[in-house]
Design goal:
The chain has 11 helices and 18 strands. It is α/β, with parallel strands linked by helices. The relative contact order is 0.18. Strands 1, 2, 8, 9, 10, 11, 17 and 18 form an 8-stranded mixed β-sheet that branches. Helix 3 packs across helix 10. Bound molecules: flavin-adenine dinucleotide. The site of flavin-adenine dinucleotide has 40 residues, from helix 2, strand 12 and strand 16.
Length: 420
């Protein structure tokens, strides 16, 4: 529940529309930084905003700032293709993603903001006998963790996705697939806005256009930060900057095992509803869904080279479109409307880092790579817990940075094949 409810009556909506919304209550304030905060979160993406919200709403810490170098939600949170699922292979991953999925199921209610969470299902298609066998092994492992997952045969797939061609003589015949019915999509901007509004209602200062320049620490303890808006004191600093995590860690001499690469997405012109689920194909190497506006949303894998340019290279764009047409020839005359990229932060085992560091009061939440949107509520929950108690809980513990020293990797490279 929000502490301060924002209510609009029908009369106030009409009144405000005539006054061009001049007196419309802002969804969040635009404060200048104070001198001191109990906790500063760097990065106003979904994970950073969720962390601040749960620190305030669950742990009762009210003197919090979220500093953001651009605008809130302008990083990967506002750039992703919004696929949500929890059907991961390893127990550690299944636990955190399922924890998150359960939070998604009540998120609009909790934030009093419609995040348009739609459990339309996520279906991964197999195009060879080998892929199908590999899938059934995965489905058994997923079900052992109590997560819904089922194998569909080509006839069931045709019924579920009428526009798909299940002719077995195609170059990539549809031989079966596995479905998570509780998976789906949510509106990414709304997730950032909902968390921002809810955090602000608890008094969290969200400070946009405020870049972190330096991290100040004394006797191995965090004492503050230097930002584009001046120096701010704090004893606890949570860094949640996705693709820029290694850049920020480098400021205090910490080397994170992260590669930052562009990941691209495309949307087409809006068309009438043709697809009401999410389709992934690892062999054809693409995934596709239809947004509520009618646009076809397409994506594929990461660019081959590390970069901080948020656009990506042309061959990857070309490959995405070719793959979409391979799977759905009816899309061949569709015009593409927009194309963009984000910088994803990938660990060697394709699992995230949620961790304390060797500097007291400095915490990192990163390495979500190509698939962190789905984890937004769960990641915020466990990161807030870590910062508040200075101790990982059973969900976040396996994702501590020490796993790279101890060799306790959580290898999720096969989690999707096409990125998510
Ligand atoms: C094209 C694309 C498609 C994707 N599709 C999916 C998908 O379908 N499903 C899924 O689960 N995941 C997907 N992802 C991954 C997902 O978007 C991310 O894992 C997730 O959004 C990360 O959220 P975040 O809050 O950690 O990062 P971000 O939203 O990137 O937020 C980090 C913020 O930190 C800020 N920042 C950086 N440096 C500084 C600094 N020095 N000072 C202050 N602020 C700073 C940035 O400006 C940014 O706003 C996709 C990603 C991309 C790019």
């Amino acid at each position: 529940m929000l502490e301060k409810k924002q209510k609009y009556s029908i009369f106030s909506i009409i009144k405000n529309s005539f006054s061009y919304h001049q007196n419309w209550q802002k969804a969040w304030r635009n404060p200048e930084p104070k001198k001191n905060y109990d906790v500063i979160i760097v990065g106003a993406g979904g994970h950073g905003l969720a962390s601040a919200f749960y620190l305030a709403s669950i742990h009762g810490i009210k003197n919090i700032a979220v500093i953001e170098k651009g605008w809130l939600g302008g990083g990967n949170t506002g750039r992703n293709t919004t696929i949500i699922r929890s059907n991961y292979l390893w127990d550690e991953s299944a636990t955190i993603y399922e924890y998150s999925l359960k939070l998604w199921e009540n998120l609009s209610n909790e934030l009093n903001f419609n995040v348009m969470f739609s459990q339309r299902g996520v279906l991964t298609i197999a195009h060879s006998e080998h892929e199908l066998k590999e899938m059934s092994r995965r489905v058994h492992a997923i079900r052992l963790n109590g997560i819904d997952s089922e194998i569909l045969n080509p006839e069931q797939i045709k019924k579920f996705v009428p526009i798909i061609d299940v002719d077995q003589n195609l170059r990539y015949p549809v031989m079966g697939g596995f479905l998570q019915k509780r998976g789906g999509t949510a509106r990414h901007d709304a997730v950032a806005w909902g968390y921002a509004r809810a955090a602000d209602s608890y008094g969290v200062d969200i400070i946009q256009n405020c870049e972190l320049y330096e991290i100040i620490h004394k006797n191995n303890k965090i004492t503050g930060v230097v930002t584009s808006k001046g120096k701010i004191n704090t004893k606890k600093l949570g860094v949640v900057v996705a693709g820029h995590s290694s850049v920020v860690a480098d400021k205090v001499g910490i080397k994170l095992p992260i590669q930052s690469r562009p990941l691209q997405a495309l949307v087409s012109e809006p068309i009438k509803p043709i697809l009401d689920t999410v389709i992934m194909s690892n062999a054809v190497h693409m995934y596709i869904s239809q947004s509520d506006k009618g646009e076809m949303v397409l994506g594929a894998g990461v660019d081959k080279y590390n970069s901080y340019g948020q656009k990506g290279s042309f061959p990857v764009t070309q490959h995405m479109i070719a793959s979409a047409v391979e799977l759905f020839p009816i899309l061949s005359r569709l015009r593409m409307l927009r194309h963009w990229g984000g910088i994803v932060d990938t660990c060697p085992d394709a699992s995230p880092i949620i961790s304390k560091t060797e500097i007291e009061g400095l915490y990192f939440n990163c390495g979500w790579g190509t698939g962190g949107f789905k984890a937004t509520p769960g990641s915020g929950h466990v990161f807030a817990d870590l910062i508040a108690k200075d101790k990982p809980n059973s969900i976040s513990k396996p994702f501590s940075i020490e796993r790279f020293e101890k060799g306790k990797l959580i290898d999720e490279h096969g989690a999707a094949g096409v990125a998510h």
